[in-house]
Amino acid sequence: MRAYPRIRFMGSKYRLAPRLAELFATLPPGAAIDAFSGSGVVAYTLKAGGREVLANDHLTFTSTLAEALVANEGERLSAEDVERICSPSRDGRDFIARTFDGLYFPREDHAFLDAAWSHVDELDGAKRALALSALCLAAAQKQPRGVFTVTTPRYDDGRRQLRMSLEQLFREAVARCNAAVIPGAARARCGDVFDLDEPAAIAYLDPPYAPPRDDTCYVKRYHFLEGLATYWRGQEIMWETRTRKLVKRPTPFGSKRTAPLALDRLFDHFRSAESLVVSYGSNAALPADELEALLRRHRRTVTRHEIAHRYAFGTHRTAERRVATEYVFVGR
C-alpha cells in the first residue's frame, strides 16, 4: 500500500489504510465495493488484500485515478510514451493557457498541460488513465495545499514541488503511478452511488459529510483537476468567478438537514452486502451516535471502531482543528 501515490485530498484515508486493511482481513472473503472511492487508496487496499473490487466515484478525476491505479492490472507508461506526452503540441491548442492565464501556474506550465493533452488525446484505456492521473497528481502537488480555491501564493509552505515545473512533476508522478500497478481483478466507474447494483461481500462507504462549519464541496476545491481530467469537455465553467470554478454538484450527504435521510437510503441500498463498513469523522455535524442508530435500522449487529486521526493539509496552526476521531462502523 505504501506504493500508492499520495494526493492531498480532502478526507483521504491514506494514513488509515493499514488499519482498514487489518479490519477487512477479519471479514468474510468475497468481492468488495468502494462506493465513494475518492483518492482510490481504500479500493487499492482492498485489491492488495486479494479481493475483487469495484471502485466508484462521482468525480471524473478521482474515477480516472481508480481506473489507472486500481482497475489497471499491468499496463504502464513507457519511456517513449512519456517523451511523446512531454513533446511540443501536435495541434497548437491553448485552452488552458487562455483560460487560466495568471492563475495557479506560470504560463509555461499551462502551455505544457495543453501540449500534453494534445498527445493524451491519442491514447486510450489504462495508458490514457495513467497519463491523466499523473497530470492531476502533478498539478495537485504544485498547487499549495492541493486545493484550487485560491490563486495567490499565501499558502506557499516552501515545498520543493512548488519550485519545480509541471513537466518535472509529471515525470515523477508517472514513475509513482507505474510502480503502483499491481495484478488483480478490479473495475472503476464514474457515477451516482445509487446507480450501483452489484453483489458484494463488503460495501465500504465513506460518504461526504457536513461539518459544523464550511462545506464538503469537492468540486469547489478540485475543479481544476476535474477539468484537467476531461480537458473541460462537458464541464460548465463559472466564468464570472476569479478561480474559474465549475458548477457545483449538490449532494444530500453534505447538508446536516438532508444527511440523515440520505444515509438511511444509502444503508438500505446496500442491504444485500454481507458487511457494511462505514467511515465517518467526529468532526461531522451529524453525531456518531445518530449515524450508528441509523445503521442499526438495517443491520443486526454493529461494531464501532475508533481511530485517532488528523485531517490536515499542513503544519500550520489552524491544522490543529483537524485533529479528529475516525469512526469505522461494521454492520453485519
From TrEMBL:
rRNA-binding in keyword set: no
Entries under InterPro entries matching the protein: MeTrfase_D12, SAM-dependent_MTases_sf
Keyword line: Methyltransferase, S-adenosyl-L-methionine, Transferase
Keyword Methyltransferase carried by entry: yes
Pfam families per the UniProt record, alphabetical: MethyltransfD12 (PF02086)
SUPFAM superfamilies: S-adenosyl-L-methionine-dependent methyltransferases
Taxonomy, superkingdom: Bacteria
GO MF term list: methyltransferase activity
GO BP, one annotated term: methylation
Protein's name according to its UniProt entry: DNA adenine methylase
Protein source organism: Solirubrobacter deserti
